[in-house]
């Protein structure tokens, strides 16, 4: 079975039912998503891609805030895309694809993106470094990579960290403690990295601006 079929089936099985109440429950622990959206500086006609867009929650907020931006989303799960299509209709172009190997021209008929967003998705992508590298390849000059995900919880009590990670593992979620270093070493970014730990490092936020 191919990688996209294998991991896609795992995600479909995980979220076949959960997608129906995903947005109502995740707002309590996917902290910092709106912080990421608040930090985005979007011009009219900018192309924005969300990698692993899930139910389309973030894309719907982006459309409200930036009605003239062009929105795109990809996800490996057909089940999640069902919810996203229902929520977004014609507000965004959506496609099933592997975050580690996708072609914007084939999927969306565009060469690159002005903004690429990872919102609590790297912790669910097995080859998360490959997904970052792939995103960097498709970021337009002057574009920005935006990331929010689980941090290292280093400023929280140890029992909180242990309990959180044990619970997340039930949903195939693994916080990427090496993410800050991976971003610093990301090939082809040619830009400036801004990063911060939020909520006592419960979450990690980063913005990578490509200048060339």
From TrEMBL:
Name one matching Pfam family. Methyltransf_25
Q: InterPro entries, from UniProt? A: Methyltransf_25 (IPR041698), Methyltransf_Superfamily (IPR050508), SAM-dependent_MTases_sf (IPR029063)
Q: Decide whether keyword Methyltransferase is in the record.
A: yes
Q: Which CDD domains match?
A: AdoMet_MTases
Q: What is the superkingdom listed in this entry's lineage?
A: Bacteria
Q: Which UniProt keywords apply?
A: Methyltransferase, Transferase
Q: Could you tell me which residue ranges the Methyltransferase domain spans?
A: 48-143
Q: Which GO terms describe its biological process?
A: methylation
Database matches in PANTHER family: METHYLTRANSFERASE, METHYLTRANSFERASE TYPE 12 DOMAIN-CONTAINING PROTEIN
Name assigned to this protein: S-adenosylmethionine-diacylgycerolhomoserine-N-methyltransferase
């Amino acid at each position: 079975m191919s990688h996209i079929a294998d991991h896609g089936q795992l995600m479909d099985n995980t979220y076949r039912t959960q997608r129906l109440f995903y947005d109502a429950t995740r707002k309590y622990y996917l902290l910092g998503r709106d912080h990421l959206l608040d930090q985005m500086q979007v011009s009219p006609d900018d192309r924005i891609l969300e990698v692993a867009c899930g139910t389309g929650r973030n894309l719907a907020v982006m459309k409200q805030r930036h009605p003239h931006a062009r929105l795109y989303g990809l996800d490996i799960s057909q089940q999640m895309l069902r919810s996203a299509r229902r929520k977004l209709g014609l507000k965004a172009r959506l496609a099933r694809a592997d975050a580690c190997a996708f072609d914007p021209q084939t999927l969306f008929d565009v060469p690159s993106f002005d903004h690429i967003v990872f919102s609590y998705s790297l912790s669910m992508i097995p080859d998360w470094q490959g997904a970052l590298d792939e995103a960097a390849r498709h970021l337009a000059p002057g574009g920005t990579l935006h990331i929010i995900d689980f941090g290292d919880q280093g400023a929280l009590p140890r029992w909180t960290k242990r309990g959180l990670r044990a619970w997340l593992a039930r949903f195939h979620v693994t916080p990427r403690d090496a993410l800050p270093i991976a971003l610093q070493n990301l090939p082809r970014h040619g830009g400036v990295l801004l990063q911060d730990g939020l909520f006592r490092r419960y979450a990690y936020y980063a913005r990578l601006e490509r200048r060339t």
